[in-house]
C-alpha cells in the first residue's frame, strides 16, 4: 500500500525565503531579546566547500550570512515566518545550512533549529525539533536536520534559530527547509546497490552438444549481508514471533540478558540461566549472536552495588566481569559491544581513569581472541545530536586504537524517527574512513502511522544495504508488545504482519537473486547475483546435477566450472 503523503508537495523546493540573503534581511526578524541582525560576508577562503546538500546541481554555500548579536539567552536568535499551507503533514522535510559562532566565542555551543507550529491561540503552539549542531568560532558546521508534522499548521509556522549562551553571537548561512523526494532517492540507491552488492557470474558447463540448450536454475540460499533481531526469554515462547524470526532473520542479539546488571544483579551472585537458554534457542535455529554488552558507560545503567564500590574494588569487579563472561562464552559470540554508549556516558572512565576503556577492549581480545570488538552508540546517524556526531565517534575510535584497543567494528544503534537518507549516508561515508565494518545494531523506526513507518524503515534499510561499509542490520525487536519503543513493530500482537513487516519481507526478496534459463551455444549461463551462497541445478538428457557455490565481492565476473 502506498502512502498518500506526497500529494501536492513540491519536492526539493526551499520554503525559506531569501535564504542566501540576496535581498538583505528581507523576511528575517530577531527572536526573543536579540537586539541586532546584520548581513555579513565570509572571507572566500573560509566558505565551506563540501556539503551533503545535493538539491541544487552544483550548489555551494553563498558566503553571505546573518549575524545575530545582542543575545540575552539561549532562546534568542533569529526567525522567519512560513506562510500557512506551505508545510504539509506526513511529509519528511530536511533542514540544511551552516551555523557558526561570532569571533571571540570560546569552545563549542549547541545551536538549534526549531519549527514553531501555530495552533488556535498561543497556548496551542507546538515546537518541533529541526536539527542541532555544536557550533564554534572560526568554523562553519553544516546542520543536517529533519522533521515531519502530523497535521497542517492551523495558521502558519516559523523557523527559529536559537541556542548558545547569552552574549555569544550566532551566524547562519544559507538556511534551507525542503521536502525530500524519497522515490528519487530510492532510484539512486537501487543503482548503487547493484554496484555494491552484486556481481556478474558465468557458469560454464562445457562446450559439449549434450549441454547446449539444457535447462538451468540458480537459487540463492543465503546472503553475505546479515539481518538480525533482538530476542528475550518471553518472545521465544511466542509462535508468531518465532515464525517471523526464523524465516526472515539470520542473526540474533539478546535484549538485556547478557548485560552485567542482569547476570550479576547482586554482587557475587552470577546467573547465566537466561543467556544460556537464549543461546540454546539460537543454536537450534542456526543463528549466530552478537554479544551485547559487556559494560555500559552510562551512569544510570550501572547497578548500584557497582557504583558503591571503592575504586580498587571496582577495578577488581571489572576484571571479574570480563573473566567470568568471556571464559564462560569463549567462541560463542562473534561480536561484542565492549562498553556501550561511550559518547553519552563516562562512568568507568570517571572512576578508573582514561585508560580503562582501552583496557576493556584489550582484555576482551585476550580472553576471546576470535570476537570482533565494537563500539556502539546512538544518534550518530541522525545528524541531530551534537554529542554524537560522526566526527566525535571517529575521534573516539582513533583514541581507543592509539591506546592499543583492538576496535573491530562500529555499531550504530539506529533508534530513529523521521529518517533522512542523505543524512544517514553522510554519516556512513564519514565512518567508512576508519576502514572498520559498520553494523546497525539496534534498529527500530518509530512512527504511529504504519504506512509511514514502512517508508521510514525502507529509507534506513536501503541506505544501509547500498553502503559498502555496512555489513549487517539488527532490529531491536519487531513484535508489538515486545519492543522497547512503541509504534515500531513489524508484526502486530495478534501475529499479523503489518505494512512495515511486509516492506521488510519485500526488500529481502528484492535483494535475493534467482535465475533460470538455458545453457548457450558456448556452454555458458550468465546472470548477475547478490553476494551470498547459491545452489545451481542443471538438467541434461542424462539427468540432473546440483552444485553449490558462493558469490563474493569482486569487480570482475566470477567464472565457475560446472564440471559436467
UniProtKB/TrEMBL annotation:
Residues 210-507 form the GH10 domain. It comes from the Eukaryota. Keywords: Carbohydrate metabolism, Hydrolase, Polysaccharide degradation, Repeat. One of its GO terms (molecular function) is endo-1,4-beta-xylanase activity. GO terms for biological process: xylan catabolic process. The keyword Lipoprotein does not apply. InterPro entries: CenC_carb-bd (IPR003305), Galactose-bd-like_sf (IPR008979), GH (IPR017853), GH10 (IPR044846), GH10_dom (IPR001000). Belongs to the glycosyl hydrolase 10 (cellulase F) family. This is GH10 domain-containing protein. It comes from Triticum aestivum (Wheat).
Amino acid at each position: 500500500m502506498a502512502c498518500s503523503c506526497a500529494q501536492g508537495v513540491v519536492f526539493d523546493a526551499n520554503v525559506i525565503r531569501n535564504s542566501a540573503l540576496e535581498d538583505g534581511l528581507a523576511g528575517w526578524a530577531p527572536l526573543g531579546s536579540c537586539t541586532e541582525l546584520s548581513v555579513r560576508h565570509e572571507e572566500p577562503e573560509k566558505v565551506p566547500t563540501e556539503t551533503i546538500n545535493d538539491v541544487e546541481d552544483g550548489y555551494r554555500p553563498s558566503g553571505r550570512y546573518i549575524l545575530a548579536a545582542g543575545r540575552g539567552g539561549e532562546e534568542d536568535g533569529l526567525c522567519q515566518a512560513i506562510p500557512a499551507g506551505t508545510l504539509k503533514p506526513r511529509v519528511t522535510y530536511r533542514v540544511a545550512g551552516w551555523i557558526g559562532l561570532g569571533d571571540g566565542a570560546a569552545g563549542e555551543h549547541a545551536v538549534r533549529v526549531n519549527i514553531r507550529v501555530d495552533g488556535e491561540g498561543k497556548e496551542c503552539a507546538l515546537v518541533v525539533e529541526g536539527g542541532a549542531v555544536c557550533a564554534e568560532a572560526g568554523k562553519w558546521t553544516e546542520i543536517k536536520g529533519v522533521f515531519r508534522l502530523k497535521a497542517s499548521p492551523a495558521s502558519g509556522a516559523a523557523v527559529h534559530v536559537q541556542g548558545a549562551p547569552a552574549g555569544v553571537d550566532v551566524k547562519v548561512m544559507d538556511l534551507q527547509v525542503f521536502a525530500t523526494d524519497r522515490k528519487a532517492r530510492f532510484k539512486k540507491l537501487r543503482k548503487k546497490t547493484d554496484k555494491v552488492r552484486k556481481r556478474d557470474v558465468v557458469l560454464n558447463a562445457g562446450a559439449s552438444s549434450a549441454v547446449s540448450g539444457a535447462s538451468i536454475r540458480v537459487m540463492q540460499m543465503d546472503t553475505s549481508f546479515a539481518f538480525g533481531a533482538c530476542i528475550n526469554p518471553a518472545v521465544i515462547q511466542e509462535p508468531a514471533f518465532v515464525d517471523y524470526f526464523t524465516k526472515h532473520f539470520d542473526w540474533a542479539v539478546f535484549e538485556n540478558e547478557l548485560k552485567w546488571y542482569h547476570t550479576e544483579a547482586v554482587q557475587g551472585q552470577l546467573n547465566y540461566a537466561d543467556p544460556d537458554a537464549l543461546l540454546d534457542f539460537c543454536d537450534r535455529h542456526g543463528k549466530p549472536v552478537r554479544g551485547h554488552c559487556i559494560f555500559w558507560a552510562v551512569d544510570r545503567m550501572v547497578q548500584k552495588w557497582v557504583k558503591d564500590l571503592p575504586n580498587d574494588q571496582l577495578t577488581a569487579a571489572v576484571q571479574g566481569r570480563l573473566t567470568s563472561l568471556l571464559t564462560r562464552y569463549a567462541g560463542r559470540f562473534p561480536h561484542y559491544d565492549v562498553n556501550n554508549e561511550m559518547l553519552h556516558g563516562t562512568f568507568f572512565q570517571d572512576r578508573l581513569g582514561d585508560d580503562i576503556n582501552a583496557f576493556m577492549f584489550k582484555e576482551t581480545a585476550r580472553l576471546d581472541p576470535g570476537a570482533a570488538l565494537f563500539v556502539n552508540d546512538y544518534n550518530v546517524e541522525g545528524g541531530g545530536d551534537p554529542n554524537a556526531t560522526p566526527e566525535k565517534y571517529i575521534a573516539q575510535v582513533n583514541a581507543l586504537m592509539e591506546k592499543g584497543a583492538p576496535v573491530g567494528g562500529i555499531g550504530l544503534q539506529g533508534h530513529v524517527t523521521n529518517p533522512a537518507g542523505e543524512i544517514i549516508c553522510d554519516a556512513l561515508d564519514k565512518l567508512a574512513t576508519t576502514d572498520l565494518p559498520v553494523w546497525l545494531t539496534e534498529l527500530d523506526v518509530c512512527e504511529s502511522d504504519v504506512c509511514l513507518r514502512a517508508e521510514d524503515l525502507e529509507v534506513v534499510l536501503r541506505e544501509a544495504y547500498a553502503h559498502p561499509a555496512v555489513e549487517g542490520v539488527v532490529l531491536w525487536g519487531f513484535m508489538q508488545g515486545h519492543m522497547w519503543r512503541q509504534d515500531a513493530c513489524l508484526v502486530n500482537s495478534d501475529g499479523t504482519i503489518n505494512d512495515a513487516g511486509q516492506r521488510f519481507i519485500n526488500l529481502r526478496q528484492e535483494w535475493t537473486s534467482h535465475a533460470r534459463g538455458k545453457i548457450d551455444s558456448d556452454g555458458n549461463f550468465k546472470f548477475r547475483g547478490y553476494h551470498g551462497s547459491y545452489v545451481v541445478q542443471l538438467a541434461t538428457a542424462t539427468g540432473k546435477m546440483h552444485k553449490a557455490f558462493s558469490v563474493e565481492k569482486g569487480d570482475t565476473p566470477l567464472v565457475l566450472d560446472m564440471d559436467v
